[in-house]
C-alpha cells in the first residue's frame, strides 16, 4: 500500500495510507510537506477514499448486505473501491 510517513516537530510519527490513485494525486504536496513514501501498492482502505464513502459517511457498514450493496452500486468510485460494500472482520 502507498504508505506515507512524516515526523512532526515533537517527534511524533504520522502515517497516511492511500490508494495508488490518491497517492499519485497528492505526491507533490506530500513531498513538499516533508512526507516520505515508505511503501507502495494498494491498501485495503485509503484514508482519502474512505472520507468519500457513503457507507462510512452514513454509518451503514452494519446494515444488511442488500442495503450496503445498493448504496455502493450508486457510488461513482465503485470500480476502484477495494471493499465494494464488503467488510472483513
Task: Name the features.
89 residues; alpha+beta; three-stranded antiparallel sheet; 4 helices
Q: How many strands, which pairing sense, and closed or not: the largest β-sheet? A: 3 strands, antiparallel
Strand content: 15-25%
- Give, in order, the helices and strands: EEHEHHH
Q: How many strands in all? A: 3
* Straight-line N-to-C gap: 19 Å
Going by helix content, strand content and strand pairing, the class is: alpha+beta
Helix content: 25-40%
What Rg is obtained from the alpha carbons, in whole angstroms? 15 Å
Low-confidence regions: none
Total helical elements: 4
Question: What average pLDDT do the residues reach?
Answer: 83
Number of domains: 2
Strand order of the largest sheet: 2-1-3
Gross morphology is elongated
Polypeptide structure, described:
The protein has four helices and three strands, in the order ββαβααα. It is of the alpha+beta class and 89 residues long. The protein folds into two domains: 3-39, no CATH class; 54-89, no CATH class. The protein has a three-stranded antiparallel beta sheet with strand order 2-1-3, with no helix packed on it. A hairpin with a 5-residue loop joins strand 1 (3-7) and strand 2. The chain is elongated and about 45 Å long.
Amino acid at each position: 500500500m502507498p504508505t506515507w510517513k512524516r515526523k512532526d516537530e515533537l517527534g511524533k510519527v504520522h502515517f497516511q495510507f492511500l490508494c495508488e490513485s490518491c497517492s499519485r494525486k497528492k505526491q507533490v504536496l506530500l513531498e513538499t510537506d516533508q512526507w516520505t513514501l515508505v511503501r507502495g501498492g494498494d491498501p485495503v482502505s485509503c484514508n482519502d477514499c474512505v472520507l468519500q464513502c457513503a457507507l462510512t459517511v452514513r454509518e451503514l457498514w452494519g446494515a444488511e448486505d442488500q442495503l450496503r450493496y445498493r448504496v455502493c452500486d450508486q457510488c461513482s468510485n465503485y470500480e476502484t473501491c477495494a471493499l465494494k460494500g464488503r467488510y472483513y472482520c
